[in-house]
Each structure stands twice: as C-alpha cells, then as structure tokens.
Amino acid sequence: MKENKLTTFIILLGAISIVTYVFFDKLNNDQVETMGLNLFLSQNYLTTEKNNTNDLDKKGILPGDLALDFTLPIWGENEKVSLSDHNGNFVVVNMWASWCPPCRDEMPYLIQFHEEYEGENVQVLGVNMTTQERNLEVVAQFIEDFQIPFPTLLDERGEVGFGYQVMAIPMTLIIAPDGRIVERHQGYVNYELLKNYYIKARENY
C-alpha cells in the first residue's frame, strides 16, 4: 500500500513538474525574481510561524516546523549523509532535476552563494530528484556542467520528494541551526533572494 501511494505520488509529481517547467519557461528572470521577492516580503514566516505555534517540537515541512530528517547517498562518494548531521549550521537544501530549465538557471546562483558564505557555518545541499531522471548519466552530466562544489544527494526512492510534498521543482528550503525550517521557496531563486533569506534568518536566530 505504501509503495502504491509512493508510485502515485511520483507520477503526480512528474506531471506537475512538467506544468511548472512550461510556466517558468514562459517567465523571464526579472518576473520570477520579483514574484519570489514579493512572496518573501509578504509572508514573514520567521516571526509569525515561530510565535503562533503551540508545539515547538512539531516536525513538518512548513516554515516554523522542525525539518523532517532524511538520509541519502552522496553523489560520487561511498557514504550517506543525514540532514540532521548539519544541525548547528544554517542549511540551504535545493531540490532539482537535470531536465528542469529553472533548476539550470538558478544553479550558478546557488554556487555563488555557497562560495560566498561557506565560511559562515552555512551548508548548501543539492538533492537530485533521481526518480524523475532518465538515468544517472544525465545527473552526472549536470553536476559536471556546473562543477557543483557542494554535496549532491540522490533521492533514489523519492522519499524526500514524497515526505516534503514537492509538487514542483526547483524547491529550496532554508533551515536554521536548530533544525527549524525558516523558508520554503517554490520555484526559481537568484543570488539576491538567497542572500535576503539568509540575512533575515540570521537576524531571527
């Protein structure tokens, strides 16, 4: 039963991702950046969610929740890593697939952010939606094309996509040192948006 639900979810996720692909492909970068920034400014999750929750230990997928933990293999290494391994640091989790144009467009900004802030207890993690890929060769090509310097984790069974209800990609989470989600951003991000999210998170933690 669980496997059937997971399969259904993955099929639904793929369909929605195609719709999102078309949507973002029609928007230019300026439109997407403005949309994302307006969303950030109009929804101050950092204060409202934190102040309104009655259960500070609640695990979930929304801002204010403790992030659901996961353990995934690292691309190119014979080991796995858990999200909770990075408790004590700010963590940026970016979920992507190689065929997704907004994922390709935003990757240079994630790399720029990583290089700018890696000395400030900030960890960027890429999570490849492996169940949506044709094969691992296209994943390898994507990583090589961008020379991604931060760890890429493989969601080989769709556990992260299912657990976090990722209906479209890219998706980016900003997680505070205490393991709490402070931002859940659906869609394309650029460097300035990532920087704004991070600065706002530091101000509140």
UniProtKB/TrEMBL annotation:
Transmembrane portions of the chain: 6-24
Protein's UniProt keywords contain Transmembrane: yes
Keywords from the UniProt entry: Disulfide bond, Isomerase, Membrane, Transmembrane, Transmembrane helix
Keyword Membrane: yes
Example of a GO MF term: isomerase activity
Top-rank taxon: Bacteria
UniProt domain Thioredoxin: residue ranges: 61-204
Protein name, UniProt field: Thiol-disulfide isomerase/thioredoxin
